[in-house]
Amino acid sequence: MRHEEARRGEHLARAPRVRHAERVSDDCIFCGVVAGTVESSRVYEDDAVLAFMDIQPVTNGHLLVIPKAHAASLEDLDEELGATMFRAGHRLAAALRASGLPCDGVNMFLADGEAAFQEVFHVHLHVFPRTPGDGFRIDADWRVRPRAELDDSAALVRAALPAHHR
Q1: What is the pTM of this model?
Q2: Is 124 annotated as catalytic?
């Protein structure tokens, strides 16, 4: 199954609260993984999240951490459930380093939205081992920006935060 086929979905069942999302999406491939109707190589599971091997790995050991309740985007995901996903990712990164798989570093990556190259619209955290020369790269305009530009951007983001988070 390719990522294009997987675009249909993600997650399932009982877990911490999900705001604007369904508990299960019938056309979501990741919801099928949670339900056990879609084959997967499971690595970790608790009441809230599930981790399994990516079928198109960037590197050997590349896995995905998903919430069990369907949430298409971060906007749909409860903040505590998001924190639970990253805690699981943290543990799995340590497990990758200890696994015997080639692993000199670890990337954790979450794409939220089509513009960010999210292909399966069920929130998922990529956790993958890195080695020198493994070929993975993100091409971007990595350059130092003027302080005024950074300060202006910071002010806009800060103003958009709820008052109790500023």
Answers
A1: 0.82
A2: yes
